[in-house]
Design brief:
Layout: E1 2-11, H1 14-33, E2 35-41, H2 46-52, H3 60-65, E3 69-74, H4 83-89, H5 91-97, E4 102-108, E5 123-129, E6 133-142, E7 150-156, H6 159-174, E8 179-184, H7 192-204, E9 211-216, H8 217-226, E10 233-236, H9 238-251, E11 259-263, E12 271-275, H10 292-304, H11 308-323, H12 335-347
Parallel strand pairs: 1-2, 1-3, 3-12, 5-10, 8-9, 8-10
Antiparallel strand pairs: 4-5, 4-11, 6-7, 11-12
Helix pairs in contact: 1-10, 1-11, 1-12, 6-7, 8-9, 10-11, 11-12
This protein binds 3-isopropylmalic acid and manganese (II) ion.
3-isopropylmalic acid binds at residues 87, 91, 242, 276.
Amino acid sequence: MKRYSIALIPGDGIGVDVIDAALPVLDAAGQRFGFALDTQSFPWSCRYYLEHGAMMPADGIDRLRGFDAIFLGAVGWPQTVPDAVSLHGLLLPIRKAFNQYANIRPHRLLAGVEGPLKASGFDILCIRENTEGEYAGAGGRVHQGAANEVAVETAIFTRAGVERILRFAFEQARLRRKHVTSVTKSNAQKYSMVFWDEMTRAVAADYPDIAVSHMHIDAMAARMVMAPESLDVVVASNLFGDILTDLGAAIQGGLGYAASANVCPDRSAPSMFEPVHGSAPDIAGQGVANPIAAIWSGAMMLDHLGEGAAAAAVLRAIEAVTARGIGVRPRSHSTAAIAAAVGAALAE
Ligand code: IPM
Ligand code: MN
């Protein structure tokens, strides 16, 4: 039997709830498809920070490096640790250290889930650049607190970084409906975004079978609401992709359905799979968080590990459950009940 080593980082808030709920479903998939997940859980979180003064140990990245994948719940507990500290201490360094430059986020309505839009037939795959751009971390503050204080945060776009995410998006489009929409703001940002547009045209030349559209981020926000079914693969910079994928989550019914994969495409390091929703302190520990985003992210992990049939079966099981009205509204069912129903559907 194939065995995969999985590092679990439940993290904070409902991250713990949904990882707990999702794991048995993935184990059930393993039983049915003949593989096992060997998991090791790491307590790295804001709670850990309060005890140790760091979100993870100094050798945390090295300890994760040997795993086949990382399954993460959520990071952040702003009541005790500022978000900029917790995220820069755990989530963001993992994405960068392991070169997880492709953040993949699917947006479509699951069977039985009603979104806020009239449109229902959309199926968008957002490819977000995940290691540089507006999240590069280049900047600083001087004269803090004084009237002449200055804060600078420079977005960094490298040729290598932009080219590889664009190529990744075009490759994904080949597996789908063969349309890439590249999102920038090149009418206002005349260096980085004009560069991105040029790179899009250069890469597109290698993919004559793929149709390409260029959109500005503001128009794109409107289009995702007005005509989401006109989109296939959407590729954007780190911050633009971050914003668009919360919009994507909204049109697919809510953050409880939004899955994501932080992928290191050359597989030189583990990739990381996490629901988009964050730690949701207001409902943490109540057993009411929707585990579907985490289970779907887990399915993306199985797919990445080479267990495509198991991944597809998990997604079918999710939709068999949502089609019956389970997990389709906030608090309609408990976290455990939704996950148990998915597990049962998987066994059928
Ligand atoms: C996400 C989150 C993170 C991001 C935050 C928590 C730093 O919003 O994964 O979308 O901006 O990447
Ligand atoms: Mn986000």
